Amino acid sequence: MKRVAVLQGGVSPEREVSLSTGAQVVAALREAGFDVVPITVTGDLSALIAALTPPPDAVFNALHGRFGEDGAIQGVLDWLGIPYTHSGVRASALAMDKVAAKAAFAAAGLPVAKHALVAIESLAHEEPLPRPFVVKPPNQGSSVGVAIVHPGDNRMAEIVADWEFGPLALVEEFIPGREITVGVMGEEPLAVTEIRPTDGFYDYEAKYAPGGSRHVIPASIHPAAYERALELAVAAHKALGCRGASRADFRYDDTAGEPGRLVLLEINTQPGLTPTSLLPEQAAHRGMSFPALCAWMVENAACRA
Q1: Alpha carbon distances (Å) from 254 to 117, 144, 205, 251, 259
Q2: Per-residue pLDDT tens over the stretch 46-90
Q3: Please, what are the domains in the chain?
Q4: Catalytic residue numbers, as ranges
């Protein structure tokens, strides 16, 4: 029986998301017949290495955010020679660095939003893009710290004062329309889901709170746009060199009619696997159970060693 260690928790603001993902994965892998060892990760790297000794057959990386999906833990596992799920060091680091990812996407000819990397303090007295625009941390996930600034909005001083994500911020043009997402397994797209937040935009609360959003699968968009979204998701997966499963997030601007304009926002190299997550829904839409999805990820685990 293959022994699989599930890494969960971590030290990022997404710790609770990771613990939820980890609990789901542990149960699913046990149902699939694996010998599962849950490991709750803290800031003590030596404790983590001790927990991985002797090494398991594979690691299921259920960590989210910094040090979990930015290439850091991937480098440790490469060094230890333990196969792990999801992308490797380079793709993980690129995807987590939103500015670097946009550069890679643009170089591959993929559609990205106008954007600028600025000192957060500068936003208190100048704006790099016309309103409306989005302000977000350049290296966080799960919409942590994201704010939309509309015309007439006087929250800029408040956003700057409350900022806790380092000296820089990514400012991005706001794309009107709808939020859609596409999961990819290997190099095969799964489906297009439209995300309809219950209130406001698709922020942290809408992603993880029960009832925070409604998922429409398959998305009710023009067939040509649907196929294009599938193609772009696979192209983005390849542009960063992703491995295993990923999820590409888009804005679909259909305000002038359909088919509309697709704009690639980012790639998530470790899509959430919580009860409200999108990738498991898309896999189920394709006839794959959650235990089968997790087992597929383990069977496709790898490392540079």
Answers
A1: 27, 26, 25, 9, 7
A2: 999 999 999 999 999 999 988 999 999 999 999 999 999 999 999
A3: 3-85+294-299 (3.40.50.20), 95-112+176-269 (3.30.470.20), 115-173 (3.30.1490)
A4: 14, 142, 208, 247, 249, 266, 268, 272
